[in-house]
Amino acid sequence: MYKANRNFSLVSESYLFSTIARRVDAYKAAHPEADIIRLGIGDVTRPLCQAAVEALKAAADAQADANTFTGYGPEQGHRFLIDAIIEGDYRSRGIEIDLSEVFVSDGAKSDIGNIGDILSVDNVVAITDPVYPVYLDTNIMAGRRVMLLDCLEANGFRPSLPSGQAPDIIYLCYPNNPTGTSLTRAELKMWVDYALANGCLILFDSAYEAYITRDDVPHSIYEIEGARRCAIEFRSFSKTAGFTGLRCGYTVVPRELTDADGTRLNDLWRRRQCTKFNGASVVVQHAAAALYTAEGRRQVRADIGYYMANAGVIRQGLSELGFNVYGGVDSPYVWAKAPVAIDSWQLFDLLLERCNVVVTPGVGFGKCGEGYIRLTSFNSHQKTREAINRIKSLNFNNITI
Ligand SMILES: *Cc1c(COP(=O)(O)O)cnc(C)c1O
Description:
alpha/beta, 12 helices, 4-stranded antiparallel beta sheet, 2 domains
């Protein structure tokens, strides 16, 4: 008799955002007149930029012409996009990446989940708490041992280096989801130095790179000396350019990365992708390449500026209310703790019921998120201001739970 992968039963049963959706739906069913504002889920709301849409249309038209029709493409991505990535995201920052090191995909979540295919299940994995659930769940599914790195108010939600036995693999995500915090070059260098000294592999999730505003925050881990010898970087066009529906991202696997026996991770990942991944749609890759044109860049910057103005409104409004507020400077996320003793789900319920505002309970990202909520800037200026005004009408000195 066959056996299913029992590790899956160890993953928490319900996905956080399904739980939230169920609670919001139940509230709406009971209060059909409620005007609900969503600052919860991490999905963009601005439409695709014009440069991407035009490239999509042109690429679709090209498929109707026998001379330009594209059949199966290279699984690791088309050259026109890889060249644009290398120039736009790396060479322009003084980083040399070879075209054999860039792997275009349908987004960062798949690559982050699939990278485990080329890594032994014996590896011990270090993951921050709170965390983007994909790192934790995919490693539980694979049966790996996980070590949690607590991120607390005391360390500004930036993890300390592991004490004792070093992990084999370390997931880092900066700017961070959910806390919105970022690492400076010096802080990231501490992790690179630690990884090099202890033979660790860093899996660096750079999904929010486009939101960085501070000069001393690196846009790529390869800005740090030695990172090519210890880090894989995941990038996504989802939050950068509203590709959450279109789907495209990429992963950089430097050729210097070799395991304890000298096996090259780049070779394994290429083999893995060629065997198990179909590649991203050529039409979508043209849309992604358009983001690197002067027009595309300008349009993407404008959309990010729009969201960051919302992040400022959320930060300021909650600070004035006496919340402890993190993030929202290099990130579309604001991470906040109320000025009263209230847990994450209580605060979620309070804001849903009294303000009709949906947020994400911090504890859903890990035990260290208890007491916090995550708010996103992915809404209109008008709705964001309205949500903050509603929250401001609550008197936190006089809340009874
Ligand atoms: C949204 C997100 C991703 C990416 O997503 P894709 O849409 O799969 O490219 C990756 N990491 C983090 C931390 C995210 O929040």
